[in-house]
Write a structure and sequence with these properties.
By secondary structure, the protein is mainly α. It has two domains: about 110 residues; about 150 residues. The protein is about 65% helix and about 0% strand. The chain contains twelve helices and two strands, in the order ααααααββαααααα. A two-stranded antiparallel sheet has the order 1-2. Helix 5 runs antiparallel to helix 6 and helix 10 packs antiparallel against helix 11. The longest helix has 26 residues. It is elongated, with a radius of gyration of 23 Å.
């Protein structure tokens, strides 16, 4: 059931933090723990987060959630779920996940919580779908370097404020790493190298489909434009450090780069399979 504040008070965009959300989550922790389980959860948080948690009784969780750093607050969402699961408290884990998601939604926190109760920046649903699809495609030992760079994107976007510049650099590093893996003779990824090396791959891949070849060449042109755009936010030796890009521009670039990364995975695997 919706409340007055949700229906009629002006709702701004997603927010990175919220005192109300913290207090509500703390109250939820008080509800799903007891004085017997609180010390165990406290010890888990201290071991995994490297912080001191002043909680001996379950009524002290509100104070912890209100005062801890945002990174520890978000990590606590995941670790508490892990705690309930390992103790075999499936009902507690289910209540925890459902209620935390509801709190985050109602307080408009700029995060989403996945099925494992891991918190991610809630950029948009399409962005997250692209991210999950690309992560699946990178689960090959051959792509370990690109995977490591790609996984940095979420950490950069989770900073306060979001670090769009380094997130953009991370997706470029992931794409460049795969490109250089495919073409060892290319010293770096630039528009010219993309045209030279990918042009021939497109010819081989779509040799029997003229329509697909024309479309792929148009995508190659877009890829070259993305590369040139990305170089504006890459720090080159002897040049001034670029300022943060507008976050909507960074997200657009990361989304496009993610799509191009999946395309390179496809081209790499399609041509590796040929005799």
């Amino acid at each position: 059931m919706s409340r007055y504040s949700q229906l009629y008070i002006d709702q701004a965009g997603p927010v990175p933090d919220s005192p109300r959300a913290r207090r509500r989550v703390g109250k939820l922790m008080e509800r799903v723990t007891t004085d017997d389980t609180t010390p165990e959860l406290r010890d888990l948080l201290e071991r995994e987060l490297g912080i001191r948690v002043k909680a001996t009784y379950n009524i002290e969780w509100i104070a912890f959630c209100e005062k801890c750093d945002i990174r520890d607050f978000l990590d606590c969402i995941t670790l508490a779920n892990t705690f309930f699961v390992k103790r075999g408290q499936s009902a507690g884990a289910r209540i925890w996940q459902q209620e935390v998601r509801r709190i985050f939604t109602e307080e408009r926190l700029a995060y989403e919580i996945d099925e494992s109760c891991v918190v991610h920046p809630a950029v948009d649903q399409e962005f997250q779908r692209n991210r999950r699809s690309t992560l699946a495609g990178l689960q090959n030992a051959r792509y370990s370097n690109s995977l490591a760079a790609f996984e940095r994107i979420s950490d950069q976007l989770a900073e306060q404020p979001p670090n769009g510049k380094d997130a953009w650099r991370a997706i470029f590093s992931a794409v460049e790493g795969l490109f250089r893996l495919m073409f060892p003779s290319a010293p770096q990824l630039n528009a010219g190298a993309a045209e030279t090396h990918l042009g021939s791959i497109i010819q081989q891949t779509h040799a029997n489909d003229a329509t697909a070849m024309r479309a792929a060449n148009k995508q190659l042109a877009s890829f070259r434009g993305w590369i040139d755009s990305s170089h504006n936010y890459r720090h080159e030796q002897g040049s001034e450090e670029p300022v943060q890009p507008p976050i909507d521009l960074a997200i657009l670039a990361i989304s496009n780069g993610t799509a191009f990364l999946r395309w390179l995975i496809y081209l790499d695997q399609a041509n590796s399979a040929k005799p």
